[in-house]
Design a protein that fits this description.
With 298 residues, this protein is α/β, with parallel strands linked by helices. The protein is 45% helix and 21% strand. Strand 7, helix 8 (203-214) and strand 8 form a beta-alpha-beta unit.
Length: 298
């Protein structure tokens, strides 16, 4: 049995995964479709798992296929950087950075960070992965991502992770549509205020549950969301009030036509950046870590 990974197989797999089909991938990498199909079958035999399933004429990744894709992207990004380092003695620029973003981190903060980074380093390429903190800590430990921005610190038990640091605190406030804000200001009873809430497994949701319990409030939760943007869209329609981190409150209210409420739970989410500077020879990781210190002040 062959115990060595064939990187040609991995390259062919990446082509099919990104193009969505055998025919398109074969044309892109200049091999025949039968050859490509054979190579994929050999890779599936090697890993012992199916990597694709067919939907009409397209090739869809299985769960194992998506996992392999993340590794393949890192392998070839690192390989390209390696060749550049050998040829030039250093990278020509900041290179490719794989950034993990916790689902509880406001995406406007991430956008500010990347906007600033791209202005300072136009050659920077960034691949953003969103997920739960525990998923991202595992990805960081296995080098699937270079650094993580999260609203909670990594568990002390994960000794294989680089040292993280807190880059600030984010107060939580509520905002709602103008009509709902006016109705709330008439009675100021939070128990009567319809709420929109983040998903139950999120850090912010746990903090909100604790605050509601401490205030003896039984909230009327109209909907729960994994996607904050969808929550703000529904808040704009007057369905309920949404919790918002204060550093992005002004932008969110302007974008969705919301109004901040005189209801401020004593909740402060912490923000952490975890990663190692100057991994391999790239400059991009160091740049993002340095710029992360200022994203709450932008």
């Amino acid at each position: 049995m062959n115990t060595q990974l064939n990187y040609h197989h991995l390259r062919y797999f990446l082509a099919v995964a990104t193009s969505g089909g055998i025919t398109q991938a074969a044309a892109a990498i200049h091999v025949s479709s039968p050859t490509l199909s054979t190579q994929l079958k050999e890779l599936e035999t090697f890993v012992g798992k199916p990597l694709f399933w067919r939907e009409n004429r397209r090739m869809r990744l299985t769960e194992d296929g998506r996992l392999l894709l993340r590794y393949a992207e890192r392998i070839f990004a690192t390989g390209d950087e390696m060749v550049e380092v050998i040829k030039r003695g250093k990278t020509a620029g900041p290179g490719t950075v794989f950034l993990g973003v916790s689902d509880g981190v406001p995406k406007l903060l991430v956008a500010r960070l990347l906007d600033c980074a791209c202005q300072k380093a136009p050659g920077l390429q960034c691949v953003v992965r969103e997920g739960l903190p525990q998923e991202l800590w595992a990805a960081l430990g296995s080098h699937q991502v270079d650094l993580v921005i999260a609203n909670e610190a990594p568990p002390p038990a994960l000794v294989n992770l680089p040292t993280g640091r807190r880059i600030g605190r984010m107060k939580v406030v509520f905002a709602a549509s103008q009509d709902l804000a006016k109705a709330f200001q008439k009675n100021l009873d939070p128990a009567q205020l319809p709420m929109l809430a983040p998903a139950r497994e999120s850090v912010l949701r746990r903090e909100l549950e604790q605050w509601w319990a401490a205030q003896e409030i039984k909230p009327v939760i109209r909907a729960e969301f994994d996607d904050a943007a969808a929550m703000f869209e529904l808040a704009a329609r007057g369905i309920g009030a949404a919790p918002i981190h204060e550093p992005v409150l002004k932008d969110i209210c302007k974008r969705y036509g919301l109004v901040a409420l005189p209801l401020k739970p004593k909740i402060e989410d912490e923000l952490f950046v975890v990663g190692e500077k100057l991994r391999y020879a790239g400059e991009g990781v160091s740049l993002l870590i340095e710029l992360a210190d200022g994203i709450l002040k932008a």
